[in-house]
Specification:
This protein is of the alpha+beta class. The protein is built from 24 helices and 17 strands. Among the domains are: 122 residues, Alpha-Beta Plaits (2-Layer Sandwich); 308 residues, no CATH class. The strands form six sheets. Strands 1, 2, 10, 11 and 12 form a five-stranded antiparallel beta sheet that branches. It has a four-stranded antiparallel beta sheet with strand order 5-6-4-7.
Length: 752
Amino acid sequence: MKRPQSMSLLTIFLSKDLIPVFIEDIVEIKQFHIKNQQKIEFSDDYEENKKIKPRSKRSIVSEEQLDQIKESVQKIRNYLDDIKNKTGLETENIKEIDLDNKMEFEFSTLDDFFKQIVIEIEERYYHLRRITKRLDESSFILEKIAEIASFLNLIRKYGGDTYSREHYKRLNFELYIAKPQEYASFRSAARKLNSPLVCHGDMIGKDMIGFFVFYEKVNESELSELLLTYNCQRITIPEKYIDKKGFHMDKLKRDHDLNIQKRNKYMERYERVKNELPKVLASIYESYQNALSLFSIINAFEITPSTEVAKIEGFVPTKIASQIVDALEEQFGSNIRVEWKEIPRKDPYEEGTSAKEESEEERSFDIMSEKDNDVKEQDEKAEAPTLINIRRLAKPFKILVDLYGTPNYSELDPSGVLLFTFPLLFGLMFGDVGHGLVLILVGILGFLKFREEKESTARFLLIILYCGIGAIFGGILYGENFGGHLILFGHQIQIFVKPIDDVVSVLKMSILIGVSILILGWILKFINLIINKRVFLAFTEPLIKIIMMIGGTYLIFTYYFDIYAWLSPPVPILLVVIPSIVFVIIRILGKILKIDPILQKKSFGSIIGESTLDWTETMLQIISNVASFVRILALEMAHIGLTIVVREIVEILTVPGAFGDFIITPIILIFGHAFVIILELVLVMIHSLRLHFYEFFSKFFVADGQEFRPISITDRYSSINFKHSEKVDNCFNFYCEENRTARKRNIMSRFI
């Protein structure tokens, strides 16, 4: 169990001219989380993008600047989409690329930075477009040449060696192409004409027929209408290929060879551009993402009464806050003012204004107030982001915690607890040594395959590995191995009982596991309250609930539901009644004795009402939550039942002899157990998550925090040169280019 790192709020006042330099420094530090940062996502819909507004009315980003940025963003996205459609490349899925030289961009203003990206991608886009256009034109010409060659062969096939309109005074000779079905329909309809007609055709391409027709000129109008009806497309052969002197196949071949050379040349250019595109797109796409990040940073700067000064607020880890402040003051001297203070922890269970509402109130106060030179008292209660250094073994379970929510600034992260509870509950519902070994094998192999490509997938596979360990524990407990007995060195291994033989014992175990999980949840709430200095509440709520739970469990397991025994000496029901009475009245005593400052703000009536309702809700939750853990028995019985079904199918379908023993039986066993493992893996993981989310987390985990997201940009495929005006160089001699690198190295050395 780890507690979030302590955070400090920095309020920074800075000359607007120095914002690019400040961004460069703060990006290098990678420890600055913008307060109330607004994540703006642009969509493909331009109308939707038009609705995006600056962070606040006090943002230094004006409506006009934002409109220019929206226009640039729309162009970049359109160009990226068009290039993707033309080449089939996916900018988001570009694999490892080695770059000789990174694409460089200069940052002076945000609008200029976006325009640089637009210019770069526009140049590549139109270059690709010109090449593809010429390639398409060349391919089209080659198709026409092939078509002409097919028609010449068709004419020659039926006895023609020359072609001249002068030979046909009363007849028309025309060439057409059509699809086979349409050609057949045309011929059928043409036969019904009361006119001489000669028509012959052959396949000249895939799903296309070329044909010629001889008909009388007097029927030209009627036949043309018929050809149009059946989508017959007229083809004209240039006279340079056929005339009254005959066919000129040499010219046709010469044109064909010439266009082949052109197409090959354009294809080489296209392939060269396409091979370079992944590197170019990786650089442009990375720069585009960096531009959006820089936009979110600049959008967080607010104007102040002084038109030359801007303000930004953000959180940094307290352990390095003083170093960051010293580094910034050394870097900017008298041109920066930094005010900072540590954000105190607060009771994560405190009733009243929620974190989101509190944030809104602070923003409203911040907007109305013009005292920008003072750090406001409300900042002490600002909702600080959560930064937790999770141990390596527990990191995979952060995926499951994130499904529920992010731990807030004042509570413990439960990932470390899930390292033990999740595999335990999984194993009790999936108890089988053989199946557990399969899960471990799948987890290891999958992790080795995906650890470099997809971190989230790799972590999920590690969870499967841990679940496999839990399944082995459950299998040893129940003595289960692939649905049969667990035999080791000739001895049957079984620590507990087989669920199918002793349902009652497993039911009791399930209830006790549920009681233990609920008590663990209240223990964690007790710890949360203690470390947040709510000692009185810790001893009056979760601790008393634990005592009530232990007393109730002892009462039920010892005296069952015999009410007469409950009320008979030594009156065991008092194990529940006395803690219940104390639970209701102890808060009233806390108000009378002025022990807890929070209780002083409430009336006696509200305290009595809240305590009574809390007690009623707790009793109902205990009953329903403990009952939920009966699913441990149900799912383990289902698991055993499915393995029995597989075994029975083997006995029914197996045929005598070597064929049955070495082929049929192994196939049925492999596919049968694979089906059971996959089905039960899904079902048990869902139910294990449900037990954790609704029964366990609800006892202590608020999960209303926000993740620590420091300002950062990536420079794997591109680089950004932050530029500042000459005015800055003239005013501040330590910003000159010759010693700027040394200054930057001095700042970074504080955090290495």
